[in-house]
Design a protein that fits this description.
426 residues; alpha/beta; Adenylosuccinate Synthetase, Chain A, domain 1; Adenylosuccinate Synthetase, subunit A, domain 2; Adenylosuccinate Synthetase, Chain A, domain 3; 3 domains; 4-stranded mixed beta sheet
Length: 426
Amino acid sequence: MSSLVVVGSQWGDEGKGKIIDFLAEKADVVVRYSGGNNAGHTVVVGEEEYKLHLIPSGILYGDTPCIISAGVVVDPEVLLSEIKYLNERGIGTDNLMIDERAHVIFPYHKSLDILSEQRRGSEDIGTTRRGIGPCYRDKTDRMGIRICDMLSDSFKEKLEGNVAFQNKLIRAVYDSDGFDFQEMYDKYIGYAEQIRKYVSDTSITVFDAIKNGKKVLFEGAQGTLLDLDYGTYPYVTSSNPVAGGVCTGTGVGPTMINDVVGVVKAYTTRVGKGPFPTELFDEDGERMRTVGHEFGTTTGRSRRCGWFDAVILRYAVRINGLTSMALTKLDVMSGFEKIKVCVGYRKGDTVLTEFPASIEELAKCEPVFEELDGWNEDITSVKNFDELPENAKKYVSRIEELCGVKASIVAVGPKRDQTMVLKELY
């Protein structure tokens, strides 16, 4: 039995797509366990770049079964567009599987997402406006429509009731236009027929794969600090991207998970609003943004950048039960004379070493920095960890010491061959 969870350990955008793609070469099954098309993974294969939002990154490896599990919310229009995008680039999708229990995003979800953000004004959360939150809300309100419902004889009745309800909400609360039921129904019936061949109870597939000793890779989206329960609430996503979300999202028990690798960027970034203790507003931050190409895969928004935050990673280690980390974008740190690492938060006369729950408390904190010597060498072609500049190795070692977990992978660029394996995960 060999199952591995790949989880984001900061605010997302840590380079999970690259790490998942790298590990997927040895995986027998790849499973996406949470979120929706509000997440994006960029994968570079040779000179080709692929941007994925719903379909697991393992799709680039031939016949490897790639599963969209029940914990994911699915926009059929986006899914079919992504299938077309891959097919047009010579990537087959016959190995794609979608769980019949996954909930479906409808146009009224996207409309409510936009209207809700507009209502908040300057206090908006900064969602991707893709309808993710409203879809999860319908799920918890027990009025959601699942893939299996969309393929059943009861779909028309369920959708008609939902459209009537959502139209009342949109018109009464937001004074906006509603939707035409028949038009939406006709469109989604068409979607249903196109995705029918991919649909099954994928929890059985995953369970059987693990029981039969197959290598199963669970693909996370977003990051720990965006988790609905453990993130910087309310500036979070609407699902559970932490490792625990694997169990509820895919239908496997915790005893079936062997290892959890946390993907960690060599500095810290964040998209959208919310507290960010180590954020930089100077030339150093702009350098990270430019050299690291820090723009969102899904939204295109520029990412906020700052020094590495060890408080966050210690928190991620504990919340996810990390067994190792995959450190990405170490190459971006080349050229800094001095590199800072946040080792704690100063709040008045107190230094906090644990991440606070309250964003109001976090906003009052100032980072406590430790300064390390940088390096100038270009490390993008280094293939062996021992060949890295001494200060680069010291930087990695210090991160390991501060966070209590060893690096199993260190990446010095976006390509597959710019990845150093320090410890085999499969």
